[in-house]
Specification:
Shape: globular
Number of strands: 8
Helix content: 10-25%
Number of domains: 1
CATH architecture: Roll
Amino acid sequence: MLRHVGVNVRDLIQAKAYYDILMPILGFEPHIAAADQFAYRPINDEPGASLFFYSAIEQSPYSRHQPGLQHLAFMVESRAAVHAAHTKAIELGSEVVHTPQVFPQYRPYYFATFWLDPEGFMLEAICLREEEGT
């Protein structure tokens, strides 16, 4: 099992403000908050990977189309939670890549939304439960 992922960002303060609002919707709670890093872990210490953010030492443009991080996917409990993440992403001014929908080409019941964070990282909220409606 993956224990944690570390991500470098250009603006640590901006990233923390963004993710402090977003992560509880995705099932994460604050874990570490320091001047040089912050992190989230699954709520109630549930199993799963933690996500750490660090200030980038070298500044360069990011692109998910170059080698490196392509996107981060967060498993959520319901399609309603996917919709909640989508709504919050819009409220935060994020660019939506895919609105909430079924992606049958990935697997049955793959319901997800994709958006870009302030750094340009693509994020995904996904529910794999069979549910009626969208």
